[in-house]
Design a protein that fits this description.
YaeB-like fold
Length: about 150
């Protein structure tokens, strides 16, 4: 009985957290998405947004995404603080995922989303998890070879 009650409470809390995230915006979406994923709730909010698992607690991966070769300075003013700059590009990454072209990896490990934003081709690579959430793997502005 306690287990069944916990499942109902967890699912209800997770779904409510995602609804609040849709209302409060991106910062809340990160927190609510983590709570909802932990609680085992559905991966999409009532507004249709997918849960994205950001890398904020994995600083080496954040630093890789924010490396100069990924050319984020073409879209935003970089502060030099990798985590702060990564948070600044999160709305861009979400927009690419929500509106871009979805390209599955032939090996089936990752999915790539591509979109043109402010004249720049943005590439976001994600792992699609079993619960429907997306885990960011890499993101960059596509540069053309010279």
């Amino acid at each position: 009985m306690w287990t069944a009650g916990g499942v109902v409470v967890g699912a209800t809390f997770g779904a409510g957290a995602q609804w609040v995230a849709g209302v409060l915006g991106t910062e809340a979406a990160v927190t609510a998405g983590t709570v909802a994923t932990t609680a085992g709730a559905a991966a999409s909010s009532p507004s249709g947004q997918r849960t994205i698992l950001w890398l904020e607690e994995q600083l080496p991966r954040v630093e890789h995404i924010m490396a100069p070769k990924h050319a984020w300075d073409r879209l935003i003013h970089l502060s030099g603080n990798a985590l702060q700059d990564y948070r600044a590009i999160q709305p861009i990454l979400r927009q690419v995922i929500e509106t871009g072209v979805r390209i599955p990896d032939p090996k089936g490990m990752f999915v790539e989303y591509r979109a043109i934003i402010q004249g720049q081709e943005i590439v976001v690579r994600v792992r699609e998890l079993a619960n429907g959430a997306l885990e960011i793997s890499n993101a960059f502005i596509q540069t053309l070879p010279r």
